[in-house]
Amino acid sequence: MVKEISILIGGKAGDGIDKASIVIAQMLSSIGYRIFVHRDYPSLIRGGHTFSIIRASDIKIYAHKEEIDILIALNAETLDKHRKTLKNKCFYIYDSEQIKMHADACGTGIPINSILKEENAPELMKNSCLLGAFGKATGISWDIIEKTLKITIPKEIDLNLKVAKKGYEYAKELISIEKLQQNSLPVLTGNEALGLGFVAGGLDAYVGYPMTPSSGLLHFLAGLAKQFGLQVIHAENEISVIMMALGFAYTGKKSAVGTSGGGFCLMNEGLSLSGMAEIPVVIVLGQRTGPSTGLPTYTGQTELFYAIHSGHGEFTRFVVSPGDCEQAYYLGAISVDIAWKYQIPSIILTDKSIAENVYSFNLDEVDQINFSQPIVWNGDEPFKRYKYTENGISPMCFVPKKEAIIKVNSYEHDEYGITTENPVITKSMQEKRVLIKEKFLLKEIENRFECVKVYGNKNSETAILCWGSNMPVCVELGKKYNLKVIQVVVLHPFPVNQFRKALEGVKRLIDIENNATGQLGNLIKSYGFSINDKILKYDGRPFSVDEIENKLKVL
Amino acid sequence: MDITKLNTNAKNTWCTGCGNFAILNALKLVVKEIVSKGTPIENIVLVSGIGCHAKIVDYINLNSFYSLHGRVVPVAQGIKIANPSLKVIGFSGDGDSYGEGLEHLLFAAKRNIDITMIIHNNRVYGLTTGQFTPTSPVGYKGRSTPYGNKEKPFNPIELMIAAGATFVARTFSHGIDLLKRIMLEAIMHKGFSIVDVLQVCVTFFNMYEYYDKRVYIMEENNLDDFDIAMKKAREWDYNSDTKIPLGIFYKKEEPTFEESFISYESKKFVDRELKVKEILKKYSI
Description:
Chain A has about 550 residues and is α/β, with parallel strands linked by helices. Helix content of chain A is about 40%, strand content about 20%. Chain A is built from 18 helices and 21 strands. In chain B, helix 1 crosses helix 6 (about 175-190), helix 3 packs across helix 4 (about 100-110) and helix 4 crosses helix 5. The N and C termini of chain B lie far apart (about 65 Å). The interface between A and B is large, with 70 and 58 residues.
């Protein structure tokens, strides 16, 4: 009996690999396993090689391993490419009518076409056949397979079940996976966890334009719109996206937008307007392999400096990067809160990995979310949209408001929001926007949040430094090798005191990032800290557990 | 309502004789009328872009969003969708909305969202000192086209009717009565309305005499007929020296974009945390 398993399912785009991998994930989740699904697909609609790795374990996991236990191949290319990563080279399930093998092939061949013909089932049901065979190969009982299929593929379920049963009967048991005595958790993508965090954080509107890897967030929130009274708009381009969001915010409606690097470039004038006019907005920047169009469906961590420095002029902003679904949920809610308290843009840096990979999500493990009280105009004196205050935050009110004239302005402006070029006012307003607000924001976040998280052996003299979606893989290895792991969650304003504290006792710091230059390593250098080694990866693919392990060994 | 209360302390920096004064004065009269018809003054929101036109929001004491060059339309749409009870009036220039922000304008017309766009169309960039715009005539000599502009102008009337706007009109900054009437009708129209105002830039492209000789007020019949509207729109192409019709070209009632969100409002106060838990159940077996 095993308590951990990795399955790779591959075929060509359009084969339904994605859906099949979710069904496998749900099957394993329903018997108590914690799930991680890594999706690898090219930027095209049909054809090309696509695969998913489903890893399931009795403990929480957030990264895949190179070595796999079961391979499910819908075409010959999948077998050629991935058979070498099988622990037992015979543990593969394949379509024996699609893939011509030697007579002595040791895998489990399923004559899918014949089965479909026998049952008079359409071609798209071939996956059900393989899912049945997979269940048998891993010792999952038929009733669990049946239950999972009924929920995940409700359409024409009777026929699907017949086909699956045939696949089940054809296969033989290869591995026996233990049924665990722990509750089953929901299985969702990072985008979905973030979207739920937004909802919990009181979001009223979401505006987007499709772009991998953030489109999933637009789809998810559009699907929830009616239930939550959310207003979700797919606008004509990213410039319109952010400007509409600022229009929403002007009326007091909390809005967010989502995109990737290219779309974020278009949003930059709106970002700068948010800074100048002090209109809150939350921006999801889903990183992928750049520059330019790059590898649209692959991952990277190259926008750290861009997020911190984007937009012309100087203004306060809040930049965070979640490492797992629980953090995505938490930071989704918190980013809305901070944006609205300080009337600034919040940027959430995700990447293709966390946005689109699938995880077991545990709401009970999300940090406690406490919301700030909004600072509102009390009506005692004429309303000044940009009133000077000690902490730089002007009390707000929103249209339509009797007795208040609410003027926001992209030009430099006086306290009422009227355009000015006066040097004294200009200086005061610059200080309000960038110096005073940032000072108070930094103080607040260092007191209020764990901006820097420490995992593993807290006394270790060797520490791994990471951010974003690399956190889980680093934590898994930190635990295995008894190392300290430091994750920077808030990247701007840089939580220098918390970071210094995290580094106490550390003699050797190893920076692990998905970019070619080590951006976080360079960022901490500007605050007077230094790193000793770097493990960088910039081929569009995320780190696997084994890969970092091998690199750590030779450092 | 005392319209002097609409004044602000901002110093007016438009050139003497600028067509923008007429638009500002007409706006004040229109606001007075809208308010007398029952719209609370705090429900009026003005949005402007960047250019000489945009200063209008500094000169009038109303809610305003002084936005970016070319971006009046998306901001105005966000405000309207967020709260359909607001009267959202966008002020923009020809460089602003026919150039930098044309795509937004086309999409707002396509959506038939209930906002009004007043275009200060002086057919020249004023604030950046006299370059040609999307509506300048062929041969216009500006600092970026010293040998004369080679491009034919857009006909914004034709463009807007084609894109789906449900109220399209042209008026002139010389003659406040027509200006006021058309602006008021545009604002009261339910759906996307656009008023192309031939607004004269006295400094860089003084067309007062040219327009005075050519403009006439159209008879407004069969306003919901697309083909008739297109025919009228093509009477003057912003390039040739023909007569220039003023008035409403096209007016039609159609469903508006922001209406489709109104039913969502009632769900706003659901217990979100409870709802999140409910949704999570769908993601587990």
